Amino acid sequence: MALVIFNLKTYSESFQRNALQLLQACQDAKTEHQLILCPSHLDAGWVASERKKSKPLLFAQHADANGFGAFTGSVPLESLKALGFEGTLLNHSERKLPHAQIKATVVAAQELGLKTVVCADSVEEAKKVSAFGPWAVAIEPPELIGSGVSVSNAQPDLVKAGVAAIKAVDRKVLAMVGAGVSTRNDFHLSIKLGADGVLLASAFAKSKHPDKWLEEFLG
Questions:
Q1: Are 59 and 85 in contact (CB under 8 A)?
Q2: Which of 78, 92, 111, 209 is the catalytic position?
Q3: pLDDT for residue 113 is more than 80
Q4: What is the tens place of the pLDDT at every residue in 28-67?
């Protein structure tokens, strides 16, 4: 079984009712793989209330360790737990964080029973953030994000090196890869190269028929 994380970002194609269509596709998918959906913060409560099954897991696109209070614009981990979310992404290339903040958020999430997937833009960063003990680390070369050119095809040696680096620090940390992943071949090649799963966004979020796209991708 592999992990497949769908980051819906803030595309118009994945906003409001479209987010529910993507949620439904994940709920209806017949697969042994663990699916994770990351809706926008504005859709988080709505998507959580519409989830009828234990799948997919719901992760936020970002979270903060400051707790509830006078923190304008923050996304408290406690709010995600209250909504029924299982975890959060951290340090995506579009929302980079200081490493001290990543570590504090990972620790706070663990205390609440929430999972964290920390993104890394290089093998070196993957090593550093793996030491914080997150549930998973996802390596995403920034230059390939949204390109349609999969990291597993363009930089297979990077995938191998990244997986090895993560496991060398902590074998319990899941090693994910992303950037440009958009086809079943991209997915299967990533797993063949040693990854525990993939992280992707636009290929699924912008698909006109997400149920059919998901069937093809996971098949």
A1: yes
A2: 92
A3: yes
A4: 999 999 999 999 999 999 999 999 877 999 999 999 999 9
To the query of whether residue 33 is one of the catalytic residues in this protein, the response is no
| Annotated active-site residue in 62, 78, 125, 140 | 140
Are 91 and 100 in contact by the 8 Å Cβ rule? The answer is: no
Exposed/middle/buried for 85, CB within 10 Å: 0-12, 13-18, 19+? buried
Count structural domains, the chain: 1
Q: Is 92 a catalytic residue?
A: yes
- Both tokens of residue 93? 């290339």
**Measured distance CA(86)–CA(80) in Å, rounded:** 8
User: Any idea what the CATH number is for the domain that residue 85 is in?
Assistant: 3.20.20.70
* Residue 74 · residue 32 · CB < 8 Å: no
Q: Chain centroid to CA 137: how far?
A: 9
Tokens 């319990």: give the residue. Answer: 172
CA angle 148, 167, 163 (to 5 degrees): 20
Q: What is the separation of C-alpha 205 from the centre of its chain, rounded to a whole number of angstroms? A: 13
What pTM was computed for the model? 0.95
Q: Which domain holds residue 193?
A: 3-218
Q: Under 8 Å CB-to-CB from 73, ≥6 apart: which residues?
A: none
